[in-house]
Amino acid sequence: MRHVPKAVAALLAVIVILLSLDHIGYAAKMTPEREYKIPSWDMRWGAEDEDGSLDEVTDHSKVWMHIEDDTQLLKQPGNRGTAWIRIKLPSLNDETPAVLFENIYGRHITLYKDGTNFYESYRGYNYENNRILIPLKPEDSGKTLYIWTESSKNRLGIIGNVMTGDYRDLLGNLVRMDVLDIVLGSTFIFISLVLLICSFFLFRPSMAMWLSLSAIVLSIGLMIVTYSPFLYTFYRGYGKLYLQLFDVALFILLPSLAFFFEQNINSILLIRKFRKLLTAYSLFCFIIMIVNLGAQERLNDVYYFFSVIVLGILLVALMVLLVFASIRMALKGDHEAIILSTGFAFFAVITIAELSWFFIRDGHYNMFLWKWGVFGFVLALIAILGRRLAEKHKQVVRYSRELEMFNNELQRSEKMEIISDLAASVAHEVRNPLQVTRGFLQLMSKQEDGKNKDYLHIALEELDRASAIITDFLTFAKPEFDHTKTLTILDEFKHIEGIISPMANLQGGKISLDIPQEIKVRGNSSKFKQAFINIIKNSIEALREQGHIHIWAYVDNGEAVIHIRDNGEGMDAQTLSRLGEPYFSNKTKGTGLGMMVTFRIIETMNGKISFTSAKGVGTEATIRFPVAG
Question: Which key words tag this protein in UniProt (predicted)?
C-alpha cells in the first residue's frame, strides 16, 4: 500500500502532461487558415423596458459601442440587465459553416438572423457563462447577427474568440476547450477515492489525516468539474445540480484544509480556532442553501452574499494564515513543511490573486488559473503522504530488525539457562570424583620412579585442565558475586598486566595501558580479572611478529568504557558473529567456555561487550560498565 501515493502521483503527472500537449495542439489548431476570428463587434446596453424584441435594434437613438477588446467585460451602467450585440459575419467558404462563441455571458440569450429568431437559450440557474456553436449556411456570408442577452448578475457581453469555420472543426475545438478540466477534476476525484479506501487500513491517528486529505482532493476535483463550462454546454439540463455540488465542495474544502494543516502544523493554535469557525460557517452556508432552494431561490441575493462574498473573504484569510504557518514551520527546518509551504504557497498566491481580482472587477472576471495552483498543491500533499509512508516503512523495517535481535537474544538466554542448569549439575557430580582420582594419582607418582611417572604427570595435568573447565562451568552457571566492592580499573589492569605480560612476551608482543586513575566500577575483583584475562589472552594468541595490545579507558555518559585493541590476525564477519556462543571456538583445543564465561561475568556486572574485527588487521573489544557512584 505504500506505493499507492507514488503510483497515483505518477499517473496524475502523465495524464496532465499528455493533456497539456493536447492543449498546446488545440491552441495551435484554433487558428488554421480556414477558421476566421471575427476581430470586433458592436454592443449597446438595453433599456429597462426592453424584452429582446428585434424591433428594439432599429431604434437609431440608441448608441452602439465598437468592441475590439475581447479579454474583459464592460461594466454595466446602473442596474441595466440586458444588452444587444451586433456582429457582421465574414465570407463563409466551408461546406458546413458555423460560428463559435467561446464565452457569452447571460442567463437568457437570443440570436437573430434575417429578422428571425434562430437560436434561444435560457438557464434557470445562476451560471451565465455560455459556449455556443451555431450552424450557418454559405449564403449567410456578410449578414449581420443580432444577439440579445439578459443577466441578473450584471455581467453581459462577449469574452474570448468569436470564430467562423467548418462545423466539425469548431465542434472539436469546443470539446477540447474544457475536456482538460473534466479529466483533471475526475483524476482528483479518483485519487480521493483511493485515499479514502486506503485510510480504512491505517491506525486511527493516521486515518484522520488521510480522511481530511481525501476530503480536500474530492472537493477540489468536484469544484474543477462543476466550475467548467463543459457540463453546462453539453449537459445543461443538470446545471442547477452542478452549482449545488460546487457550493457543497467549497463548504467541505475550507474546514478540511484547516484540519489537515492543524494535524501537520500543531504549533499554531489559531489554525484550530479558525477551523472551528470555518466548520460552523460552512454548516451555516449549507443551511442557507437548503432554505434558498426551498424558497424557490427567492433568497439568491442573501445566499450569494454569504456563500460568495463572505466565504471568499474567509478563504483569503485562511490562505494567508496557512501560508504564514507553513513558512514558519519551514524556517524551522521541517522538511515536510518545506514541501507543504512550497505547494500551498503556489496555490494560495494564485487563488488570492484571482479572488482579489474577482472582487475588484465586481465579478466581471472568469477565474481559471486557480486549478493549476490546486494541481501544484495536491502534488505537494501527495508527496508528503508518500514521504510519510516511506518513513513508516523504514520504521517497520527497523522494528523488524530489532524484533529479530530480541528474538535472538531471547533464544540465547534460553540456551544459556539450559546450559547453566546442566553445567551446575554436571560440575557438582564430576568434581568430587576427579579430586579423589587426582589424590590417588599424586600418591602413585611419589611412589613411581620409572617411565610410568611421566604418564602420571600427564594424567595430573589433564585432570587439572578438566578441573579448570568445571570451574568455568560453575562460573558460567552461577556468576553471581558473593563479595562486590568498588574497583579502580587502573589497579585491576596493572595486576592483570603483571599476570599476562610474560605470555605476551613469549609471543613477541607487548601490552600498553592508558587508563585514568579515577575511573571506578562496582564488581568482584577476581571475576573482573578473569573476564579480562580471557579477552587479553585471546588477543595475545592472535598476535604475530611485533604484536601490540593497547588498552585504554574513559568515561562517557556515566559509563566506564574500556577498549582492548590488538593488531593480530583478526576475524571474519561469520566468526565475529558467533563469539560467546556455547562451545564455539576457532582454536584447535578450545572449548569456547572462556568467552562464554567472559560474556556472563560482564553481563552480571550490568556491562555490555561488543567486538569489531577485520581479517589481517586486528580486533577491538569495547566493554561498558556503569561508573561506581
Answer: Kinase, Transferase
Closest CA to 303 of 244, 360, 357, 358: 244
Reply yes or no on whether the pLDDT at 554 is more than 90: yes
The closest alpha carbon to 379, from 247, 216, 200, 223, belongs to 216
- How many H helices and E strands in the chain? 15, 17
C-alpha span between 320 and 36 (Å, rounded): 44
Distance of CA 301 to CAs 245, 313, 475, Å? 19, 17, 92
| Strand, helix or coil for residue 550 | strand
Mean pLDDT of 439-452: 68
Residue where the block lists cell 484571482: 354
Provide the residue type at 375 as one letter: F
385 contacts: CB under 8 Å, gap ≥ 6: 5, 195, 210, 213
Residues counted in the chain: 629
The band of 366, judged by pLDDT with boundaries at 50, 70 and 90, is low
- The 10s digit of each residue's pLDDT in 601-614 is 888 888 999 888 88
Q: Which of 195, 201, 540, 537 is nearest to 382 (CA)?
A: 195
Closest by CA position to 108, among listed 117, 100, 116, 99: 117
The DSSP H or E segment spanning 180 is helix 167-199
What pLDDT, on the 0 to 100 scale, is given for residue 22? Answer: 44
As beta bridge partners, residue 87 has 145
What does residue 200 show for φ and ψ, rounded to 5 degrees?
Answer: -75, -10
Q: In this structure, is the dihedral angle defined by the CA atoms of residues 573, 576, 582 and 587, taken in order, positive or negative?
A: positive
Distance, in Å, from the CA atom of 124 to the CA atom of 107, rounded to the nearest integer, reads 7
Quote the pLDDT of residue 428: 59
Q: CA end-to-end span of the chain, whole Å?
A: 52
Q: How confident is the model at residue 18 (pLDDT cuts 50, 70, 90)?
A: very low
pLDDT value at residue 82? 87
Q: Is 121 left (phi over 0), alpha (psi -120 to 50) or beta?
A: beta
For 502, the enclosing helix (H) or strand (E) is: helix 489-506
Q: Are 157 and 45 in contact (CB under 8 A)?
A: no
User: In the numeric block, which cell numbers belong to residue 84?
Assistant: 444587444
CA angle, 240 as apex, 235 and 245 as ends, to 5°? 95
In sequence order, which residues have a C-beta less than 8 Å from that of residue 490 and are 6 or more positions away?
A: 513, 515, 516, 517, 519
pTM over 0.90: no
Task: Summarize the confidence of residues 150-156 as an average pLDDT.
Answer: 78
Q: How many angstroms separate the CA atoms of 9 and 185, rounded?
A: 14
C-alpha R_g of the chain: 44
Cα distance between residue 120 and residue 503, in whole Å:
112
- Who wins on pLDDT, 75 or 138? 138
Residue-wise pLDDT tens digits, 171-198: 888 888 888 888 888 888 998 888 888 7
- Hey, is 447 helix, strand or coil? helix
Question: Is 619 within 8 Å of 535 (Cβ atoms)?
Answer: no
What pLDDT score was predicted for residue 85?
A: 92
**Burial class of residue 511 in the structure, from the number of CB atoms within 10 Å of its CB (0-12 exposed, 13-18 middle, 19+ buried):** buried
Asked if residue 617 has pLDDT above 80, the reply is yes
Residue 258 above 80 pLDDT?
A: yes
HSE-up (13 A, CA, CB side) for residue 383: 17
- One-letter amino acid at 549 equals I
pLDDT band, very low/low/confident/very high, at 111 (cuts 50, 70, 90): very high
